[in-house]
Amino acid sequence: MARKQTGKKIKSQKPVFSVGTLSTVLLLAALIGFAFYLNREKKSTADATPTSEEITYLFAATEGSVTSIEIKPTDGESVRIARNAEKAWAVELPLEAEADQGLAEAAASQISALQVLSPIEGKPGVFGFDAPAYMITIEFVGGKKHTLEVGDNTPTNSGYYVRIDQDKMMITNLSGIDSLLQLVNFPPYLNPPTPTSLPATETLIPPTEAVTVTPTP
Are 137 and 66 in contact (CB under 8 A)? Predict the structure, then answer.
């Protein structure tokens, strides 16, 4: 008797990932890649932004605290403020008087905050140093002195050309220098001195002429 051969049906195998699942995986990979790109761009931007460590100041912090400031304009009176024996600020020029401590300290802080925007090279006369508009003399706690010549404004009016100790020339921030130069017009007196009263002028009364009266007979 012959055996009856039975053929087995081969079941069709389904793909491991469906079309929907594959699209989801590709979308997820794209999102991860985009997030990675954004993080890298943020890091690059942060690296390109100047930090406080990259800022260069005209006077290094190692100079110490400011003990005196004198501003001498080309035209006009010099102004000088200095710390006295009690370490308090006092106005020494143009008139000796007690200083407003807040205003004087703000001027000293402004000296330490002056930034170097850019070093410059060339003939000093080009930048106005042959006849500087102002000469600022600064003394620090260790007794070291520096002179700061203020030349012309930059063409964009964003800073001043300055020269330290008649040597290094650079551009510094406009607002910082302008704040210091206010001391020339408004010295930081605690009690602004009043003008001295002028002495009263004497009025001379001319002597009256003697009148001779002739008696009538």
Answer: no
Q: Other CB atoms closer than 10 Å to residue 173's CB: what's the count?
A: 17
Please tell me what DSSP assigns to residue 197: P
pTM for the model: 0.66
| Digit-coded pLDDT (tens) for 186-217 | 999 999 887 664 455 444 455 555 555 555 64
> In the Cβ-directed half-sphere of 21, how many Cα atoms lie within 13 Å?
4
Instruction: Identify whether the C-beta of residue 65 lies closer than 8 Å to the C-beta of residue 140.
Output: yes
In percent, the amount of the chain with pLDDT more than 70 equals 65
- Gap between the Cα atoms of 163 and 201, Å rounded: 51
Q: Residue 91: how many CB atoms within 10 A of its CB?
A: 22
